[in-house]
Design brief:
about 375 residues; alpha/beta; Rossmann fold; 7-stranded parallel sheet; 14 helices; about 35% helix
């Protein structure tokens, strides 16, 4: 493997990375990238390894010996600090991050995203280990624009809806709207990490993903996951398409989102890993501001893509409106728009060039009509 250089032309030294949550959607793609393109070693920590099993077996793989899987739950495992001590860099991806859980399991959500992350931050700070912590775009909550009158021309002004790491306020719903338990816990751990950096010199980078999509993201109920439960929007829509059911649009599908393909997003993460001088002390939005669609538009797009690649006809009534209370239960609330400002990351790490949604969706649906489709979400 040729000598790799950072953005400033300096050779990149091989490092050992302790990746917590390596067996999840983002972790599995990051492990693939690190194994195939870098000389770095990975201590992969998770409860499950199904999504990275192809990287662990057989022993004849070219990266054999550079990735070790450690089955543990960071809530109660005395090995955690020792594994962090063995690493040059810690990446924390562990979280409950499925919207259907936020208001039905708020205690688990808060513990997972704040309490369980505390020891990781503490061990990194005490042992002088660099930390890349994965947060969420949900920390922004609702936009300023959503509180303006519906006919206000200010709603069209980007200053009222584009989300900036260093200036945008974080606006959550009222306490009984337990959907914000996730965002609030994530914001508080961000503040703690930032304080550790300011007071104790912790070297950190915080990542705020904006709706990353791709293979292995989620589960299809009863096919490659539990028969009960509500996965995220793309998996829900995939489930409906596979079962020839109308796609359910919560509250009319008016919420707007920006989507980015996982492999495009992982490019940015690798730059953070290998350019600490440019990444330390920063919070980075990672998304595609040009890929904004309403959830209703996303449903229409997925329906067309699915019909094209599967050869099946579109249902006479391809969508149906449902209320958020009916779909998610009591206490649900939502953000109106999530559009990332990319100024800081483009300045620090170079301009990102993510692909548009239709191409991203096509890459997710490679082999229809097989059940592998569901692993696209």
């Amino acid at each position: 493997m040729a000598t790799r250089t950072d953005l400033d032309g300096r050779p990149i030294k091989p490092m050992t990375i302790c990746m917590i949550g390596a067996g999840g959607f983002i972790g599995s793609h990051l492990c693939e990238k690190l194994m195939s393109e870098t000389p770095h070693k990975v201590l992969a920590l998770d409860v499950y390894n199904d999504k990275i099993k192809h990287l662990l077996e057989p022993d004849s793989l070219p990266w054999a010996g550079r990735i070790q899987f450690h089955r543990l739950n960071i809530k109660h495992d005395s090995r955690l600090e020792g594994l962090i001590k063995m690493a040059d860099l810690v990446i924390n991806l562990a979280a409950i991050c499925t919207p259907a859980d936020y208001n039905t399991r708020p205690l688990d959500t808060i513990y997972s995203n704040f309490i369980d992350a505390l020891p990781v931050v503490k061990y990194c700070s005490e042992n002088n280990k660099r930390l890349i912590h994965f947060s969420t775009c949900e920390v922004y909550g609702k936009t300023i624009g959503s509180f303006l009158p519906k006919d206000s021309p200010l709603r069209q002004d980007p200053a009222y809806y584009v989300l900036k790491e260093d200036t945008s306020p974080c606006i959550f719903g009222s306490i009984e709207k337990q959907r914000w338990s996730y965002a609030c816990a994530k914001q508080l751990i961000e503040r703690l990490i930032y304080a550790e950096g300011a007071e104790n010199g912790l070297e950190f980078t915080i990542v705020r993903p904006f709706n990353w999509i791709g293979p292995r993201m989620d589960f299809i109920p009863g096919i490659d996951g539990p028969s009960e439960g509500v996965p995220r929007v793309l998996a829900c829509f995939s489930n409906n398409l596979l079962r020839r059911e109308p796609l359910k649009l919560v509250d009319g599908g008016e919420s707007q989102r920006t989507f980015i393909y996982i492999k495009d997003a992982i490019e940015a993460v690798l730059l953070m890993i290998e350019n600490p001088d440019r990444a330390n002390g920063h919070i980075f939005n990672v998304g595609n501001p040009n890929n904004e669609v309403t959830v209703r538009q996303l449903a229409e797009m997925m329906t067309k893509v699915y019909a094209k690649v599967s050869g099946e006809t579109v249902l006479e009534s391809p969508t149906v409106d449902v209320s958020s209370k009916e779909f998610y239960g009591e206490g649900y609330d939502d953000s109106d728009k999530r559009i990332p400002d990319m100024t800081i990351i483009n300045k620090q790490l170079g301009r990102l060039e993510p692909q548009d949604i239709p191409l991203g969706l096509a890459r997710i649906y490679p082999n229809l009509p097989t059940q592998d489709l569901c692993r696209g979400y």
